[in-house]
Write a structure and sequence with these properties.
single chain, 232 residues, alpha/beta, Rossmann fold, 8-stranded mixed beta sheet, 11 helices
Length: 232
């Protein structure tokens, strides 16, 4: 049975989309059949990250009943399956149909990664309801942790538990919150720590996950360890 992970973060700029892409890529690199779905309908960015921002058939078409899900899936050169939302459409998509669509997608991949919108709006709620397990992305700073607590509370209100959290852009500076303090505040399992990595910017310019472009980099190894932990 396929498993659906929802990647969530109330605060923008935490590295949520980067984490979603690289977790999907890391699972794919481990030999798993993986699909990443851009469920961030307001500001979809996965296509920009992967060099395929504009495609003829998108998730928007699928949700509107104008296309079949199979026809909207594109394959990355690595074998990773990608389902993008439209970056040009200004119409409000029927994102409440995401749950129904995801049930169909489960027949096409073993693992599905949903990249949600930042914030705690209706789009995020739909991803939380759709996912089998939730992964929270945050940074080691108080505003980000405060927003993370709000995200956990929303998930609980919707009857979903968060599997664990990922700390991104970790520099190890005194100005940052310590990992023990973050764990104490969030009361969730720590899935991994992704360090600040200059090679991440290089991978973004190459429009490819760092797991592929710089497999030996610190952040790449971190995402690969997280992927292994998910499989375990």
């Amino acid at each position: 049975m396929a498993k659906v992970y929802g990647i969530i973060s109330a605060k923008g700029g935490t590295g949520k989309t980067t984490s979603a892409i690289n977790l999907a890529a890391a699972l794919n690199k481990l030999g798993e059949d993986v699909m990443i779905v851009d469920a961030n309908f307001s500001t979809p960015n996965i296509g920009l990250h992967l060099g395929s921002a504009i495609v003829p058939v998108t998730l928007n078409h699928v949700l509107e009943g104008k296309a079949d899900a199979r026809g909207a899936i594109y394959e990355h050169e690595s074998g990773l399956k990608v389902l993008l939302s439209s970056i040009s459409s200004t119409a409000r998509p029927r994102f409440e149909k995401l749950q129904e669509t995801t049930k169909k997608l489960k027949k096409l991949s073993d693992y599905i990664i949903l990249d949600s919108s930042a914030g705690l709006g209706k789009e995020t709620e739909v991803v939380i309801k759709t996912a089998d397990e939730l992964i929270l992305v945050t940074q080691p700073e108080m505003p980000s942790i405060t927003d993370a607590l709000k995200t956990i509370k929303l998930a609980e209100q919707l009857g979903k538990e968060v599997k664990g959290f990922i700390v991104t852009r970790h520099r190890g500076r005194r100005s940052e919150m310590s990992i023990p303090n973050i764990r104490e505040m969030l009361e969730l399992p720590l899935l991994g720590i992704v360090p600040e990595d200059r090679k991440m910017q290089k991978s973004l310019r190459l429009k490819n996950p760092i797991v592929y472009t710089h497999p030996r980099s610190k952040s790449s190894r971190a995402y690969q360890k997280i992927a292994q932990k998910l499989l375990e």
